């Protein structure tokens, strides 16, 4: 009998200890759930930005064709106001080509001078006929004849390379001579950069439309990012941009918006627009590197701001919940109406209703057992999802995208 009594006592003790442990945990969990999560209104610089990803490209990256050849002017035989007869010499080139007057008339303007270059089709001068019709005389007109004794050519369907003055990898300035042809015409670099390919050698016959070289400028780089249709209306040429690259994690590059696409690309019902950003100082960036760009839309110094989830909406009213406590340590909140200014995805400016350091309640992490979980709750009930966006919100910008608050059922706790 004593044995059974002892066993019964042990069972009762174990049961009581288990009940105490479970009840203690329940109380602890309830205590965690009862604790309100708060933060304080901060004062400082608040920035609104639109971001996107892209890759580095060269601003100057183009082919050079033989159609860009020029003839150098040796002499100009007329001046503005001169009267000429059909066939009179107007311009003579170094290779012996001569431009003559196509008809009787008066020279109204002269566009070239001795030593200047004239590309195929460029205007040499303008002449007015007896009917007072003014027309240009260009290189390549039938009025430009070839001196057969010089073996010259006006640049027909093909040219013969005489001298190639550059090689692949050379860094050249705009206007540098690339190729001299046997007809006396030359091919100059239209832009500065590096010769990345060269497809002509001395003695080669080159079609006038053929690509002779390719020039890339590695010192002037840009990145093109895709911006959501909700944000692109805030982007404008000239806005400052901060750029980061995956290859240089600890370095930030500066830039500015140079172009905003007028036509978007639709994917799964959402349109994005290309925004081109010139990189001010590319440093060691290389073409093809991936980038993240943050376009500064708006900023304000000394702004009072709180997390976006701390602000609730009820119709046209926006308000925050300010925690209070009574003498008996009972926790409650006051509903404070606020006015908001600029905001990004993380913070919203409070222009009226709060001061720096004021405490506000924010949706807290719901506890499950003794571990924090990701569910959002308001004190006293579930917190319904919703989005708050300030009047000048940066849209889908900034870091993260906290969910803002809709008005809890029954309004805020406590009085105004």
TrEMBL record:
Stretches the record annotates as Disordered: 134-161, 354-416
Alphabetic keyword roster: Coiled coil
Sequence ranges assigned to domain YknX-like beta-barrel in this UniProt record: 224-292
Entry's localization field: Cell envelope
Source domain of life: Bacteria
Cross-referenced Pfam families: Beta-barrel_YknX
Family the entry assigns: Belongs to the membrane fusion protein (MFP) (TC 8.A.1) family.
Residue spans of biased composition, Low complexity class: 140-151, 367-381
Protein name: Efflux RND transporter periplasmic adaptor subunit
Protein species of origin: Neobacillus driksii
Entry annotated with the keyword Coiled coil: yes
Biased composition (Gly residues): 382-416
